[in-house]
């Protein structure tokens, strides 16, 4: 029994040292931050079918076009983004976090994406960067992005991405806006 008790003490001591090392290593990493954003995404859709006896058909859904404009709010919510240090080969202390969501409307795919980062490795007057991307797949895959830098997240303005395919047989307009919640 004496031998097994000795091993038990050694195992407990080793486990304690490993856990203490993990806690100390965690203290060296910058703590994460959580920030809230109001995300609003709206799409409008119009399929031009013509006004004669033979109507056009939506190329994607194969539904007869009715010349009506349809609007849908894809997203209208407050989302929280946790930015934290990510493991990387350069041992960077910079913080990064993102949020995205996919939607479908009238046979098309839409994505809302936002990323927030904080530069810690290099001192900067504007360490925060908010990037907003909107994706869709009509008339072909498109991605539109914008970004802004600020000293504090609350100083960021609303960012909006908007694009359209006006003048096409199927007109799609997609607007995505992201505003920091104060």
Radius of gyration: 25 Å
Supply the number of structural domains.
2
Structural class: mainly beta
Helix and strand succession? HEEEEEEEE
What is the count of DSSP helices, taking H or I runs of 4+ residues? 1
Q: Roughly what is the average pLDDT, rounded to an integer?
A: 84
Q: Taking strands numbered 1, 2, ... along the chain, how are they ordered across the largest sheet?
A: 6-5-4-3-2-1-8-7
Helix content: 10-25%
Main sheet makeup: 8 strands, antiparallel
Strands, total number: 8
Shape: elongated
Strand content: over 45%
CA(first)-CA(last) distance: 63 Å
As residue ranges, the low-confidence spans are 7-16, 19-27
Topology summary:
Elements lengths: L1 H27 L4 E15 L21 E17 L9 E11 L2 E11 L9 E9 L5 E9 L8 E6 L5 E11 L2
Antiparallel strand pairs: 1-2, 1-8, 2-3, 3-4, 4-5, 5-6, 7-8
Summarize the model shown.
The protein has 182 residues and is mainly beta. Helices cover 15% and strands 49% of the residues.
Architecture overview:
- The chain contains one helix and eight strands.
- Strand 7 (159-164) and strand 8 (170-180) form a beta hairpin.
- The chain folds into two domains: 1-30; 33-180, no CATH class.
- By secondary structure, it is mainly beta.
- The chain has an eight-stranded antiparallel β-sheet, with no helix packed on it.
- It starts with a helix and ends with a strand.
